[in-house]
Design a protein that fits this description.
about 30% strand, Rossmann fold, nine-stranded mixed beta sheet
């Protein structure tokens, strides 16, 4: 049976009788249950003994607020939509969220009226007045860049959620250096960026999180990491997870795990040893083929179905699949890529199931 959008994104909510589902646009923009629970872990590390006051200035459907508020003695939910406020007022008691105020208003007007806060959470709307998606901090509503001085003056910690499409460096140019940047991935897909303020003298810590792994590093470490390139594909092939790729930790993959990188732009790695805790996927290599007809004929004769990916390769997956007459799926994974010597190859592999 096909799951409802609510059950798929918020399974615990879907099990509670009487919960009101949001309008479709709010369902699209709200956090998933997994992402919200990860945010709670982040907040609990900031406040290991709990806190007194927290405010969510962009309450929306209330997923993040209802997950974070129980960490504090009192919470304030602010939302400019009267309808979403009505839904939140109805849903919070059913979710067991108590000691909260629901305020119908806009962030810019409510912020100056708040008492001192332990935490202010902000998830600016990423759509323009005409419904188009926007990515820049300055184009979101509210404009967090303009509010930052007031936010930092009012709260011990500020956490801002942004689009995973936004460039991290550009975001910190707008908002200022963050204490932490969390890249949150669910099921292998980047879902959101979380920036934690205020900054510290220790610099920015980048944390890549997926339900299968966590990987963190200092923002300055990538440029200083030692990387080794190779023309030879060895026993295992490694593909970093989406959060790691978003973080741009390309050199660090080589240094941290003793891997050789296939090309500066390929972001695939190889080694003769298996890395059990690699933050991504590991594959056992069984064939490396060039693209000449004679070279690739044995591979095509042996395999009619494979999962195909193109990494730093001039052709698209669709073009290659048509050329090879290759069906999608199965247990084989093929990577069309470029080696350090600029040679184009197909790397035929199978996934290592027990690697994270």
């Amino acid at each position: 049976m096909k799951q409802s959008p609510l059950a798929k994104k918020l399974p615990r909510w879907a099990e509670i009788d009487g919960i009101i589902a949001p309008p479709s646009i709010s369902m699209e923009q709200c956090s998933s249950e997994k992402a919200a629970l990860y945010k709670r872990e982040v907040i609990q590390r900031l406040f290991p003994q709990g806190g007194n006051e927290m405010t969510d200035l962009t309450g929306g459907f209330g997923v993040d607020f209802s997950t974070l508020a129980p960490t504090f003695k009192h919470g304030t939910y602010v939302e400019q939509s009267a309808e979403l406020c009505r839904i939140a007022q109805h849903n919070f008691p059913l979710l067991g969220v108590k000691a909260v105020d629901v305020v119908n208003g806009v962030a810019e007007e409510i912020l100056p009226t708040l008492p001192p806060q332990d935490l202010i959470y902000l998830d600016p709307a990423r759509r323009s007045d005409v419904g188009r998606k926007v990515l820049l901090v300055e184009d979101c509503t509210p404009n967090a860049a303009e509010l930052m001085p007031a936010l930092l003056d009012k709260a011990k910690h500020v956490v801002i959620k942004l689009s995973p499409m936004l460039d991290i460096t550009r975001a910190m140019q707008s908002l200022g250096p963050a204490k932490e940047v969390h890249i949150v991935s669910v099921g292998g897909e980047c879902k959101e960026l979380l920036l934690v303020y205020p900054s510290t003298e220790g610099g920015t810590q980048i944390i890549c999180h997926d339900d299968r792994y966590d990987f963190s590093f200092d923002a300055n470490a990538e440029s200083m990491a030692a990387v080794k390139y190779t023309d030879e594909v060895k026993t295992y092939l490694y593909e970093p997870g989406a959060a790691v790729l978003k973080a741009g930790a390309f050199r660090l993959m080589s240094e941290r795990f003793g891997l050789e990188k296939l090309h500066p732009n390929s972001h695939l790695y190889t080694a003769d040893h298996l890395v059990e805790d690699f933050p991504g996927r590991a594959f056992r290599v069984h064939t490396v083929s060039g693209f000449g007809k004679r070279e690739i004929r044995p591979l095509l004769a042996a395999t009619k179905q494979a999962n195909l990916a193109a990494r730093n390769f001039p052709g698209t997956v669709a073009e290659l699949r048509k050329r090879f007459k290759l069906r999608d799926g199965g247990d084989d994974y093929w990577f069309a890529t470029t080696l350090y010597n600029e040679r184009h190859v197909i790397i035929a592999t199978q996934k290592v199931v027990d690697c994270k």
